[in-house]
Specification:
Elements (H helix, E strand, L loop, with lengths): L4 H11 L3 E6 L1 E14 L6 E14 H10 L3 E8 L3 H12 L7 E3 L6 E8 L2 E8 L7 H15 L4 E5 L8 H14 L3 E4 L13 E2 L3 H8 L6 H15 L3 E5 L5 E5 L8 E3 L12 H14 L4 H15 L10 H13 L1
Parallel strand pairs: 1-4, 1-8, 2-6, 4-5, 8-9, 9-10, 10-11
Antiparallel strand pairs: 2-3, 6-7, 11-12, 12-13
Helix pairs in contact: 1-10, 2-8, 4-5, 6-7, 8-9
């Protein structure tokens, strides 16, 4: 079950310039690259000699970066502080031509930073700098105001929830009301702890582990996945569910499918180097395709191809239309 090159090219052209709102936790992803040649005499841990570093957008900001790379126009709604990390996030967004007008300054909490220490091409350690919790009333009001303004322009909304505080009950109540009034699809990359916040979503994009936790049942085999997905759809009143299953590909559930079984989409990943941010790529590609009016199956197949390309890259990364079209050309040549 794959898109052809002609269908993929047409869909990518329709995605060009489509406005997609992204609500969620904005982060900075740092990478420290080093060499490991000995163990510390102070403790039984490897010594990493740093030889390079890189900073990229993370969390909801990475979803926005993926949308931009695919040719869509992201409208990013979230919070950050005017600290060193916040300035780096703003600079990275500006470099990509992503508007910062929908971001809300939160002076009470630092900008979230995830620092990954990489030695010999492997992640050895991750350091998180964050203060988790709901925003204060003024920041909350700012988020809801920016959300309403963005949804007046957008063709779809992506909720990128990393459970850091930007996605909370008052904001999600506003999401339901505003999207219903505008007949806009809203798609969620979930965290199981926030399950109740996603009731009534158009579609969710959990991975296998998240789907099992959300449904409170196993979801490894195709049969288990079908049962867990159906239960989750019914419990949360979802219209659709797209479960990413690593080497098993994806499973797409839809209430409009005309049949009860999910569509099983085989993986397109040829090489897996780093899965960091792969879920951001999936929801960005799917959301942009839906905003462009694509059938859910076509949107899922495009997202599947995009994920297959991004996991072959080191660190948090994005995929371009040119890379996707080259992938489809290679498939046709086989």
């Amino acid at each position: 079950m794959r898109l052809g090159r002609v269908e993929a090219e047409s869909l990518l052209q329709r995605m060009e310039g489509r406005k997609v709102a992204v609500l969620g936790d904005v982060m900075l992803d740092e990478y420290l690259f080093g060499e490991v040649s000995r163990i510390s005499p102070e403790a039984p841990v490897p010594i990493v000699r740093v030889v390079g570093e890189r900073a990229v957008l993370g969390g909801a900001a990475n979803v926005a970066a993926n949308l931009r790379a695919l040719g869509a126009e992201p409208l990013l709604i979230g919070t950050l502080q005017k600290d060193a990390a916040g300035d780096r996030v703003l600079g990275l967004l500006s470099d990509l031509g992503i508007s910062i007008s929908s971001l809300v300054l939160d002076a009470s909490r630092p900008t979230i930073i995830k620092t990954r220490v990489m030695g010999q091409q492997q992640q050895m350690l991750r350091i998180d700098r964050e203060e988790i919790g709901p925003p204060d009333p003024a920041v909350l009001l700012g988020l809801k105001t920016r959300l309403e303004q963005a949804l007046d322009e957008a063709s779809a909304l992506i909720v990128s929830d990393y459970a850091k505080g930007a996605v909370n009950e008052p904001v999600m109540d506003a999401v339901r009301e505003l999207c219903a009034a505008r007949n806009l699809p809203w798609i969620v990359d979930p965290k199981p702890a926030h399950k109740a916040l996603y009731r009534g979503a158009t579609l969710m994009t959990p991975n296998t582990k998240e789907a099992a936790e959300l449904a409170h049942r196993p979801a490894k085999t195709d049969a288990e996945m079908a049962a867990a997905g159906a239960a989750l759809m019914a419990e949360l009143d979802l219209k659709g569910l797209l479960v990413t299953r690593s080497e098993r590909g994806m499973a797409l559930f839809s209430t409009d499918a005309g049949h009860r079984a999910p569509w099983m989409i085989p993986t397109e990943a040829q090489e897996v180097f780093d899965v960091s941010g792969a879920g951001d790529t999936v929801i960005a590609a799917f959301g942009a395709a839906v905003a462009a009016g694509a059938d859910w199956r076509d949107a899922a197949m495009l997202a599947n191809a995009a994920a297959g390309l991004v996991v072959a890259k080191a660190g948090t990364a994005t995929v371009t239309p040119a890379e996707l079209l080259a992938h489809y050309c290679e498939q046709e040549a086989v």
